[in-house]
Design brief:
The chain is mainly β and about 70 residues long. Helices cover about 0% and strands about 50% of the residues. The protein has strands at about 5-15, 20-30, 50-60, 60-70. A 4-stranded antiparallel beta sheet has the order 2-1-3-4, with no helix packed on it.
């Protein structure tokens, strides 16, 4: 939920710390947001099942969380 218009960036990393997908990198309008990801990486290939991490950056707020991908 964005309280105001903000620059949003969401990137997915593998366990080696390499960026495998750049999901969002743009200014978003205020309001509730959701995201559906088709599990493709930056090269348009499908990622395999496993542990990944995603990093959310909104203005001066940053969060990194673990993500488990199951197919």
């Amino acid at each position: 939920d964005l309280p105001r218009d903000s620059r949003v960036s969401i990137k997915v990393y593998n366990v080696l710390g390499q960026v495998v997908a750049n999901l969002i990198d743009e200014v978003q309008q205020a309001g509730f947001k959701s995201l559906e990801w088709d599990t493709r990486n930056t090269s348009s290939g499908d990622l395999s099942s496993g542990i990944y991490f995603y990093r959310l950056e909104v203005d001066d707020y940053t969060a990194m969380k673990k993500l488990t991908l199951l197919k």
